[in-house]
């Protein structure tokens, strides 16, 4: 006897399947939701805030609203109308004694050096009054402002105000790339000597790349040697590698200062062995930065390499040698390709950590050895220029993400996935 499924039964089965699928989706959602919320709060929102800070431009539009309104339609080539002078005097009078004046002066000073002194000098004379106590005409206000400082009769100072008529501006992002907008709004290269951030970015990536190569050169044979040890000795070697993680970075840098100074242990050892006749300059230059960063970041290279090398069978290399291959050729052509995932993970990890280094170059390097993180800290702590600091940090993050995506694409092709 065969059972037949009625339309009602089929509908009930489909409904039960839909209910089960919906329950599985909700279960998966609740399992993933805490992690997604964590990433949103810790990563996405701060990155969005960083980008917002990099393009925010509220100082001029909030402090000089009447002036900007009076400059609407201005050709930007000649001195503005007298009404613009009257509006400027009114805005500066209103901002006198407030914190907005400091923000305005600081922002305009980025456009033209010396603008800060001009703003505060003019504010000190506010409000403008006539000798007889009568109301001043726009022309008289213009004459008094020019008498306070002749800069108010020069077009570039008015162009700096007119170019900041929006709440958001690419100024900081462009400045981070040694670019600027001219009076016509075109993006042009900043004058030579006024900015060097492209060189600093290049220096940052160069130092990070060299440190990455040094850690790979030192870490690969060490990781390979650890895999040849017994399990007990390998664990002991890994513990010795991990010991520096238990020591503060500042302590390790201080130790390198002691070791690398002219009368330090390194120079004394080199001189005692007859390698050098005089102490070498190992501090406050690029050499000290390379040595300390390589030492600090070496474990980040060894651990990924060791984890991959552990899973590589030695039988492949032995088989190649037994078939007549030279031991080095077998090692290079058979063993090394199997460690590419570890090499890729280690180099990526070390490089990303290295480009964000600040304290090591600051303490061991010279003026020409500072990386971009130094200037992010400088604009954050000393000049209080959050816009510039955010722009530099955002571009550094963007460069890191681009390199990571390139690595993912290349590694995918290597594995036949792309």
TrEMBL record:
The keyword Magnesium does not apply. InterPro entries: MetI-like (IPR000515), MetI-like_sf (IPR035906). Coiled coil: none annotated. Its main location: membrane. The keyword 4Fe-4S does not apply. SUPFAM superfamilies: MetI-like. It is found in: Cell membrane. GO terms for biological process: transmembrane transport. Residues 201-407 form the ABC transmembrane type-1 domain. The chain crosses the membrane at residues 28-51, 205-224, 236-259, 287-308, 343-364, 384-407. It comes from the Bacteria. Pfam families: BPD_transp_1. GO terms for cellular component: plasma membrane. CDD domains: TM_PBP2. It is a multi-pass membrane protein. Keywords: Cell membrane, Membrane, Transmembrane, Transmembrane helix, Transport. PANTHER family: ABC TRANSPORTER PERMEASE PROTEIN (PTHR42929:SF5), INNER MEMBRANE ABC TRANSPORTER PERMEASE PROTEIN YDCU-RELATED-RELATED (PTHR42929). Belongs to the binding-protein-dependent transport system permease family. CysTW subfamily. This is Putative spermidine/putrescine transport system permease protein.
């Amino acid at each position: 006897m065969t059972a037949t499924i009625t339309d009602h039964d089929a509908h009930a089965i489909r409904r039960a399947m839909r209910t089960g699928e919906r329950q599985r989706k909700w279960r998966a959602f609740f399992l993933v939701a805490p992690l997604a919320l964590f990433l949103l709060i810790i990563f996405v929102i701060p990155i969005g805030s960083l980008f917002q800070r990099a393009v925010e431009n509220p100082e001029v539009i909030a402090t000089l609203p009447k002036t900007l309104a009076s400059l609407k339609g201005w050709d930007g080539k000649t001195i503005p109308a007298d009404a613009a002078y009257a509006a400027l005097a009114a805005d500066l009078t209103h901002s006198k004694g407030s914190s907005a004046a400091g923000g305005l002066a600081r922002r305009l000073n980025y456009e033209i050096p010396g603008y800060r002194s001009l703003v505060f000098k003019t504010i000190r004379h506010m409000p403008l009054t006539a000798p007889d106590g009568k109301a001043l005409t726009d022309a008289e206000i213009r004459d008094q402002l020019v008498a306070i400082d002749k800069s108010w009769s020069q077009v570039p100072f008015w162009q700096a105000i007119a170019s900041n008529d929006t709440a958001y501006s690419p100024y900081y992002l462009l400045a981070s790339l040694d670019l600027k907008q001219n009076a016509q709004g075109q993006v042009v290269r900043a004058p030579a000597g006024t900015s060097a951030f492209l060189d600093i970015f290049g220096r940052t990536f160069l130092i990070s790349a060299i440190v990455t190569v040094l850690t790979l050169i030192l870490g690969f044979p060490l990781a390979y040697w650890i895999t040849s040890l017994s399990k007990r000795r390998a664990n002991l070697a890994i513990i010795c590698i991990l010991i520096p993680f238990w020591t503060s970075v500042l302590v390790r840098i201080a130790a390198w200062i002691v070791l690398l100074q002219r009368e330090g242990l390194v120079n004394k050892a080199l001189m005692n062995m007859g390698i050098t006749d005089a102490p070498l300059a190992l501090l406050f230059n690029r050499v000290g930065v390379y040595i300390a960063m390589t030492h600090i970041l070496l474990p980040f290279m060894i651990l990924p390499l060791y984890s991959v090398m552990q899973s590589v069978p030695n039988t492949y290399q032995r088989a190649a040698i037994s078939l007549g291959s030279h031991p080095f050729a077998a090692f290079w052509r058979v063993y090394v390709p199997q460690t590419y995932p570890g090499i890729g993970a280690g180099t990526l990890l070390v490089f990303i950590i290295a480009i964000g280094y600040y304290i090591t170059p600051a303490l061991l390097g010279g003026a020409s050895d500072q990386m971009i993180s130094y200037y992010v800290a400088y604009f954050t702590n000393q000049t209080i220029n959050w816009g510039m600091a955010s722009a530099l940090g955002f571009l550094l993050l963007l460069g890191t993400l681009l390199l990571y995506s390139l690595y993912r694409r290349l590694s995918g092709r290597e594995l036949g996935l792309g």
